[in-house]
Amino acid sequence: MLKGKTALVTGSTSGIGLGIATALAQQGANIVLNGFGDTDGAQAAIRSLGVKVAYHGADMSHASEIEAMMKFAADTFGRVDILVNNAGIQHVAPIQDFPVDKWDAIIAINLSSAFHATRMALPAMQAANWGRIINVASTHGLVGSAEKSAYVASKHGVVGLTKVTALENATSGVTCNAICPGWVLTPLVQKQVDAKALALGLSNEDAKKQLLQEKEPSMQFTTPEELGALAVFFCSPAANNVRGVAWNMDGGWTAQ
Ligand code: NAD
User: Fold this and answer.
1) What DSSP state is assigned to residue 95?
2) For 185-212, what is each residue's pLDDT tens digit?
3) Using CA atoms, how far apart are residues 120 and 203, in angstroms rounded to an integer?
4) 9 lines ligand 1 (CB under 6 A)
5) Catalytic machinery residues
6) Could you tell me the CATH superfamily of domain 6-183+223-255?
7) DSSP code at position 222
8) Where in the chain is the domain with CATH 3.40.50.720?
9) Ligand 1 mean position to 93 CA, how many Å?
10) How does pLDDT run across 65-84, given as a tens digit for each residue?
């Protein structure tokens, strides 16, 4: 379905980003990966699907590096047809103790990076009258949780940015939508499981159960594969008129 298209997925060396990049590659899209950690492993996994893959190591907290990444993607593959703004980080602390540098980093990486990549991707999408922008927000783009001020603020911001991007392009072939996952067992959430296990003297399995019990009636983690399938739907012709939604995939978290 996506043969000949190019998808750039930020923060795609692990977790949800890699899951979405994999699902788009399975539909034939060439992929530009970004993120830290096992960059060779991520590239090899995508290349094994028979598509072209490129990697750019831009740090999403710097506008100038995001600009360089967008230029690199356009130079390598012609243009970016699908932009997935996925890179994100978390820090947990009450507001009065929240480190200012962590606040700044979370707003920059989770929210401002999506603005910068979007503003640079739009002109070519508008010229082609086709584009898909998918913002990975969170249930925390829809509801709050204690001790996650920067994350919740950034994700509510991402949902707002999604609506405005969708509206400004509503009469064109460029759509923008957000995905709002509940708990997904990636390195980002494993850190929170580890903290809970340590604080409460629980095993890894019991800490996971407790995390789910607090928020997700389904008692199941959402998987990167399920989120990848939703991203593929947003890129399909059936989603031509799906614009500005914040689609939760959260085991009932926000239905409560
Ligand atoms: P993860 O830690 O597995 O992946 C994060 C990715 O972002 C990695 O590739 C990492 O290298 C990259 N990254 C981090 N800082 C970066 C920076 N400064 N510049 C470039 N890349 C950077 O986490 P994940 O759980 O897959 O998270 C992906 C997205 O999904 C995030 O936006 C997160 O907020 C969101 N999300 C996660 C969950 C969950 O339960 N895991 C739930 C809802 C939303």
Assistant:
1) G
2) 998 899 999 999 999 999 999 999 999 9
3) 45
4) no
5) 151
6) NAD(P)-binding Rossmann-like Domain (3.40.50.720)
7) B
8) 6-183+223-255
9) 18
10) 999 999 999 999 999 999 99
